[in-house]
Amino acid sequence: MSKFATTFILDVGNSMQREDSMDKTTYLEKATTVLKSILDSKIIQGRKTDVVELIFAGTDETDNPLAEDGQYENLNLKFSFTQANIKMIKYLDSLKKKPNNGNVDIMDALILALFSMNNFCKKLKYEKRIYILTDCQNDMLLDDFTTVKDQILSMNVSIDRKNEEILKEITEFSNGLIFLDREAISALSQLRTKSVKPTTLLRAPLTFGDPESHPEETLSISVYTYLKTSELSAKSAKKWSSIAENTEPESRTCKVDTVRTLKVTKTNEDGMDEDITVEKEDLIKAYRFGKTLVRYTADDEEAMKFRCSKGLSILGFVKKQKIKRWWLISNTISVIPEPGNSYAHVQFASLYKALFETEYCAMVRFCAREDSALKIGCLVPHEGKPYLLFCQLPYAEDLRPYEFTNLKSLLDPENIKVEDPNSSSSLKPKRNKLEARTVKASEAIQRMENFILSMDLMHAIKNPKGETKEAYKTKDIFNPYIQRVNQCISHRATNQIDSFHPTPLPLCDPKFLASITPIPSLIESSRSCATALKEAFTLLKQETTKKTGKRQWQSNKDILPGENVDAIAADRILQNMGNEDGPDAKRRKGVDGLLEINSLFE
Amino acid sequence: MSNWIQNFENFEDDPLLEEDEDDFEERTGLDSILWVIDCSPQMLSSFEDEHSFFETAISCVIKSLQNKIICSDSDLIGVLFYGTKKKQNAFGHENVYLLYDLDVPDVDRILKLETYQNNSDSFLDELGTSEKYAFSDVLWTISSVFSSVTKKLASKRVFLVTNQDNPDQDDIKKLRSSKTRAKDLKDLEISIDLFAMEDAQKPFNYDLFFKEIISEEEGISKSVSAISKFEQFEQKVRSKQVKKRTAFKIPFVIHEGLQISVLGYNLLIDQKKGLPVNLESKTNLQVKTTTKYMCEDTAQYLLPTDIKYFYEYGGERVVFTKEELVGLKNFGDPSLVLLGFKPFSALKMQQNIKHPSFIYPNELDVAGSSSFFAHLLDRMLYLERVAICRLIPRKNSAPRLVALYPDNGEKTEENVDSDAFYGFHVIYLPFADDRRSVIDFKLPESKKLFFNIYFYLDLLLRILVSEQHIESAKKIVKKVGLKKIDPSYFFNPSLQTHFANLQALALKRSIKEDVEDKTLPKTESIHQRAGELIKIHNEFCKSNLVEAEEEARPEKKKKIEVSHDISDANFEILAKEGLLSSLTVPELSTFLKKIGKKAASKKKADVIEAIVKHFGF
């Protein structure tokens, strides 16, 4: 189901204004924090099909469609079903300034919620949910209980609430959950992400063979494909005219229009160059072929286009080992058998198992839409889940086979490079200029190995019970940038008077970056290995004298506190001083590191 | 409206868009390559079976031109011949023929070179061949070709092709002169890449002459290997012709107080068609597009400083300055920070979101980086570990989690043909936000009791699929193995079609109907090798399925086919004996149909009655 209708019932009665002795905040503050957090995430996601309703129980005033003859009093249906918005957040903030003293009847509120939900959703397919935020300090009238129960069942609503007793029964039969307050806050203070509804990318047969000419002798498995990973980008901003800020408040929109003009330069009668505007209709597309511009009409392009029909076809099978991990050039795609098609399931499952057990993968040509970009890739059994994964591989055109000098010779225990005896230069063996080891090769290797093992992440996190866990699992880490953007938008929106008086941005929540920062305990426990490793090499930070590009990297001392690398090896500084042919002289030639390194090999 | 116009209309200069990944190095000018080809008689002798050294060289030049013409439209290419009878150059040097000055490649040049490639007689007729040339003149001409270019050049490279390892024939005077000229080239920052060709009869001795001539930056260890096969030549051109560009240059923080410096590259990048330009249809004049922003309220044009940005938040507009937005991305200076190590097996195939990058040590910022890097790489390979790091590649790029995958640049048994690179591949890991985990489709009603799709699929795997299923699938898998799968094998058929069309249109040739498409499955060969196995497998899957389905859904009846061949005579006997009821309804009905009679109903008794009536019993 893709449509959501959610009602929040917030108890604002007297008892909610008590302070929790543990943390000196009132229950009402806690409840609004939770509610604001849920609303904030709904606003950020901005889904039109996700609507909410807010009912306040225990308000001084009474404002709801059921109120009549003293019934359903002290209930305020303040916001009926609509997309979550800033007014709701601001209203919640205003609650603590104006305490309510009305009588609280949660059962009445629930009946009102059901009534309103029934009116709104009618027979439409909504995922219906009611949240009740209360401390359950007020008695409930139980006479209506059975009717409420029946109605909840018939409407298929699920109810979530926080705290205590009687409603337990309701939540039980409606598959709801009860959160205690601290659990609720901690559950919601976790970083959250935008949930994206999975949609099938392609429904087509996965074939092996030619289904046209040899239908019987062709493997044809009906499959569905879904995105497995896809880079989520932060919300995008629109342009705002700041000069409109000074215009009349009633009419200003601050909107920005994009004006594009197309012009050609022509020589006029007086022999002067003149820019003349061209209409879009008078344009024709052309591709460069060296100096030549080749005209393409839309028809030309359509007629000459590369054609391919949608589907997945297997070219053959290869050992999985042959696929290098770094060949993967794009996001990954899940491939599953067509749901409910038993024949497809059996075929799919036997292929999956066969690939799994033989450690093979299938090379596949993947076309998601008719005549669209054709992908080449491999189909591998997903590790840990019973379906296949399509991993796109590069085409020959995508590869830039730059050359990199192999540095293996630097591991050479002899530590020297023998000069060619035929050359005119000195016959004396000399030290490779790139060599920076201060200890014997075997020792350096040992220290490196110790260091790598000391920084193992598979058991880097310990829970209080002493069990260890893998650190930096991708499912636990949220994109800090997206979190930061959302934090700033919500903060500014809820704190500013209006769009023209922005508040200062909040400090970056340290949580955001903490998940991708070295674990302090690991840094501590590996310190001795790291120190030993450091002493095995002479690393010397060079002073950059000349800016070689517009984006020069700056000193990095803020990233980790520690000693300055420069201090480590004063002898190398001395060695390089006044040496015109040393690395300093070479550096001026360019930024290409490889060239420099080769020259250092001489 | 065609797509491309819409595309450029939708383009928004969002300040938050990632910077061009390839644009770390400031492009200060154009790249240039001058091909310098030895045309002396020994180059015209046979190299590989059918082609001479010269022809091989020319066909590689043509390929390179075609590539440049399509991919990088503004790079300059020139062609200089030496060892020719005729001369053509600014200083009147004998036996040096400047065929093409440095310029944007052109269709005509390709056509001209093609005539030399296909027919060396035409070359001999036009330019002739000669052994009498002074190598120093060649070098002199090279420097003059580059200095005559008025445009600003970012790189000046010479691709020198020869099979003569001692062009000055040990003449001390000539040698001294060549050395002087070589030094001049070096001072002008012109670098020479030597394409040394050899065959079994005549090996190429690099130390004889070229060691002294080739500028030392193009390291001795690299260029020394001579080319003895056409493929090697092509491969070398391929790896050289794109100028190596750094994508980032950052410190690599290993631990507190321990850091080296690395350079980042992109070895793999989705290659797209060149961007089209707009012409005015009548005049073929190139159209310039200008974009301006106008304030809707005041109708004034806006300066970049007048523009702010806003987001919608629950009905409220939240305004940010450009600086604020850019600042949100700032999580520290560009750097690669080590978080720790994991075994290779912890890096799953599904953990991928985009093309990888590559890092190599940068000795210039931290001396000793290479040595440290080499040891780290060696031990990580030995221990089979990837390094998990946080990467901020450039200023104002948001941080990402990456895995460094060690590559020792050596070809393995499994990948003899594919390219290998010495360094770390940087694999970008997805964040939780980038994962689409739940495949949420409706399960069939009867299968609702299963908790989720994974569980359901897993269960099917266990109950529906027997050992025999797997064994028969395994046979198919093993039967059709592929040999070549590395990235250099598959050309993008869509791009190749575009290039072929473009070239044909430009050269006014007929459009090639079928561009070779290696991504197409070789269905006939699959059929021959595995057709029978697939058929058996399909039937097996189907038959077992029927049994399983029968149990699950008894209400759906199997379609019964007539299996016995019963002649009309037999029918008569059976009818006489009153044994018709032993046959099935379809068998009986088929017979009835054949004799053109109809039964009162489809009930067995009625059908039998109709048949008995037919025989008159």
From TrEMBL, chain A:
PANTHER family: KU AUTOANTIGEN DNA HELICASE (PTHR12604), X-RAY REPAIR CROSS-COMPLEMENTING PROTEIN 5 (PTHR12604:SF4). It comes from Clydaea vesicula. The gene is XRCC5. InterPro entries: DNA_bd_Ku70/Ku80, Ku80, SPOC-like_C_dom_sf, vWFA_dom_sf. Belongs to the ku80 family. The lineage of its organism: Eukaryota, Fungi, Fungi incertae sedis, Chytridiomycota, Chytridiomycota incertae sedis. It is found in: Chromosome, Telomere; Nucleus. GO terms for molecular function: ATP binding; damaged DNA binding; double-stranded DNA binding; helicase activity; hydrolase activity; telomeric DNA binding. Its main location: nucleus. It comes from the Eukaryota. GO terms for biological process: DNA recombination; double-strand break repair via nonhomologous end joining; telomere maintenance. This is ATP-dependent DNA helicase II subunit 2. Keywords: ATP-binding, Chromosome, DNA damage, DNA recombination, DNA repair, DNA-binding, Helicase, Hydrolase, Nucleotide-binding, Nucleus, Telomere. CDD domains: KU80. Residues 275-410 form the Ku domain. One of its GO terms (cellular component) is Ku70:Ku80 complex. Pfam families: Ku (PF02735).
UniProtKB/TrEMBL annotation, chain B:
InterPro entries: DNA_bd_Ku70/Ku80 (IPR006164), Ku70 (IPR006165), Ku70_bridge/pillars_dom_sf (IPR027388), KU70_core_dom (IPR047087), Ku_C (IPR005160), Ku_N (IPR005161), SAP_dom_sf (IPR036361), SPOC-like_C_dom_sf (IPR016194). This is ATP-dependent DNA helicase II subunit 1. It comes from Clydaea vesicula. It catalyses: ATP + H2O = ADP + phosphate + H(+). One of its GO terms (biological process) is DNA recombination. The keyword Transcription does not apply. Residues 299-447 form the Ku domain. It is found in: Chromosome, Telomere; Nucleus. GO terms for molecular function: ATP binding; damaged DNA binding; DNA helicase activity; double-stranded DNA binding; hydrolase activity; telomeric DNA binding.
